[in-house]
Amino acid sequence: MSNFIVSARKYRPQRFEDVVGQQHVAGTLKNALATDHVAHAFLFTGPRGVGKTTCARILAKVLNCERRTKDYEACNECASCKSFNENASFNIIELDAASNNSVEHIRALIEQVRFQPQQGQYKVFIIDEVHMLSQAAFNAFLKTLEEPPPYAIFILATTEKHKIIPTILSRCQVFDFRRITVADMVLHLKNICTKEKIQAEEDALHIIAQKADGALRDALSIFDRITSFAGKKIRYDDVIENLNVLDYDYYFQIVDALLAEDASTILNLFDQILRKGFEPDVFINGLAEHLRNVLVCKDEATLALLEVGESLRERYRKQAALAPASFLLTALSLCNDCDVNFKMARNKRLHVEMALLKMCYINRAVKAAPQSATEKKTTDESITAGTRPPAQGNGSTAAPATNGNNKEIAPQPESPAQGNAQPLSRTEMIELASGLRQGLKKAENISLRLDAYEQAVEVEEAEKAALESRLTLENAQQEWLAYAKTVDSRLVGLAFSNAELRLEEKTLTAVVATNTDLSHLQGELMRILEVLRNRLHDPRLKIRLELDESKAQALQPQAPKRPMTAKEKLDQMKEVNPLVDDLLRRFDLKMDE
């Protein structure tokens, strides 16, 4: 049988300095060891495959090491380190909470806490996937986690911190592990290739790191898979074929065709991509990522955000020099719209092709936009200045302008702003005046509309104020009891009837005497809140439930009195009239049994 060991196990870090991408955690733990400020409970949280359990094991190993190094690493030579390396240490206990999540498992662990370590200073308990523990198991674990013996240290690891109850979080030092960057993964993979004598192209390693999505363990698993396929020489083409990744070259060709407005080439390239088995939405998302990378290369300050190899980086830089920023931003917007509406499109291929064709003519649209804006601005300025643009073509001059008495108006000296603009004719002045009158009428209409709108707003605010005035304790009690009559359950209706209401500003407090009534009202809380808001016309109304057990005695029915016996009646008669006793003796009367 083969002795092959996967890279994730073979190259698992044994020292803090070997941990990839978690220097902030390793540095903090080393400082805690140096100052002897080691907490009794740690919580390591973060995505999968980033080194949580690895750091927990390294910390447990260093804590029991008999001869720590100067930089507070394990020596790997003492008896404790050797037993740890051979998985024979009795001072380090690991528990997988995914399969041992009951109260009984936690109680068994607590029993082990009672025994002191036989060798070494600490007894370390590593609980992986701690969020899988049941609620009862968490509660059973609380006291021991808060006040353990001085020799016990707990290290909890989880990928879902939000599932840990707050009482556990408050008892632990929490360390947040980061996702491993692509650059760190590539550097780690290069070191492994050197040790394994594997030749690998840098672009191929970048693809593996990007596919791992921040998890180093996933990157190593993919690396083993590619090594099994390609052997001792890993090429970029082998990686994209094995991982079913679309080649960068397609995106470079498509962007070049978009810049050249070559629609036929674009459609043919898209057809080739579909024939290779790639989905249209995968392609459009990849194109958006490619455009983003090209946009990043437009500025040297953002070039570090590009997570690709050096050869691809240079290719991105060359294409960024050819692509205008306006084109890239518009194309990114079209890609985003295409992706958002992709699910609703019936013809998926046509939907993506239409987006590509729109991108094809972005440059033409961008060039036309400034020209139109300039022409409009020139026309507006000439009208504002009381002039018209110079005549085109025949070079004819306009007639001098006249006033209302048909007298000629003296021409004004040209200003630098007017340039060679000619004065307006009488007809043009009349048209301009007519336009101004129409503009004034429109302004008056707008002013009237604004006045009407303000009046409508005042009426609406008055109506709102009148509606809000319905929120009183008396109205709330009336609507509360009216709702109680509509519920189907008699017990729920009694709970509504027994509740005592109090109103403070916008909060209605319902005080009940028993937990049963409280649970009944909690089940109807959202419905009664909606009903009261609608009927009392106040959307800001809130309802708060309060339990007052002192009212329970007042609500309990009085026990019925039992009938008095004959002897009790006789004793009561003697207390009222002492002569009754003398009468009994005189006539020798006895009470019937």
- Annotated CATH homologous superfamily of the largest domain: P-loop containing nucleotide triphosphate hydrolases
Give the number of helices. 26
Assembly of the depicted chains: single chain
Strand order in space, largest sheet: 2-3-4-1-5
Question: Biggest β-sheet: count, sense, barrel?
Answer: 5 strands, parallel
Distance between the termini: 100 Å
User: Which architecture of the largest domain per CATH?
Assistant: 3-Layer(aba) Sandwich
The number of distinct structural domains comes to 5
Fraction of residues in H or I helices: 40-55%
Which descriptors would you attach to this protein?
single chain, 593 residues, alpha/beta, Rossmann fold, Helicase, Ruva Protein, domain 3, Zinc Finger, Delta Prime, domain 3, 5 domains, 5-stranded parallel β-sheet, 3-stranded mixed β-sheet, 26 helices
Briefly characterize the structure.
The chain is α/β, with parallel strands linked by helices. The chain has helices spanning 7-10, 23-35, 52-63, 79-85, 103-113, 135-146, 166-169, 182-196, 202-212, 216-230, 236-242, 248-259, 263-275, 280-296, 310-322, 325-340, 348-360, 362-384, 426-468, 473-484, 490-498, 515-523, 525-536, 552-555, 566-576, 579-586, and strands spanning 41-45, 92-96, 123-128, 152-158, 173-176, 199-200, 233-234, 387-388, 422-423, 500-504, 507-512, 542-547.
